[in-house]
Amino acid sequence: MKVTDEGVERKNIILSSMFFVSGLSIGVLFSLYPGANMIFAAIILGTAVTGKIDNICHLLGLLTIISTVFFLGIPKEWNIAIIFILTISAILDEVGDYFFERKGKGRKYLKILRYRPFLKIVCIIFVPILKWNTLGILIFDFSYEMAYFTVNYFYGKDSD
């Protein structure tokens, strides 16, 4: 997902087309791993509510997820209360991007919000319910950060 995002920002067609790989991966995890469906549903809802599905590659990634889930099947395990709490934490992570990024010289911001801590914390709290999927979201976030650093290494620094 992050590679796609960075590709869109850099107008790099190869990186931008990674939406298919991320969408397929998320769709498979969503369908086949109980608990992951709730986490990914929350992430999708959080990004949609905050307007972060904001380009064609994000939309195509979402359609890839939906198509994969449709093909593999919708999981039977759902807990609406947990999805709601996870969604609120995902929204807080996304909103943190809007309000706490450095915009202009001298503006202070909370650096911890760059690492989107809310969803991680809530997933850890729900370990008894989400089980190994909590580890998955932590690996997902680590991979997200590594993708950002890798793209910057090979394609140059971002505009920040």
Quick summary:
Helices cover 72% and strands 0% of the residues. With 160 residues, the protein is mainly α.
Portion of residues in beta strands equals: under 5%
Cα gyration radius (Å): 16 Å
User: Which stretches of 5+ consecutive residues score pLDDT under 50?
Assistant: none
Helix content: over 70%
Strand count, sense and barrel status of the largest sheet are:
none
Oligomeric state of the chains present here = single chain
Number of extended strands: 0
Shape: globular
Task: List the secondary-structure elements in sequence, H or E.
Answer: HHHHHHHHH
Secondary-structure class: mainly alpha
Q: If helices are DSSP runs of H or I spanning 4 or more residues, what is the number of helices?
A: 9
What is the mean pLDDT?
A: 85
Question: Span between N and C termini?
Answer: 19 Å
Describe this structure in words.
- The chain is mainly α.
- The chain is built from nine helices and no strands.
- The longest helix has 23 residues, at 133-155.
- It is globular and about 40 Å long.
Tags for this model:
160 residues, single chain, 72% helix, mainly alpha, 9 helices
Topology at a glance:
Elements: H1 2-10, H2 13-16, H3 19-32, H4 36-49, H5 56-72, H6 80-100, H7 117-125, H8 127-130, H9 133-155
Helix pairs in contact: 1-9, 3-4, 3-5, 4-6, 6-7
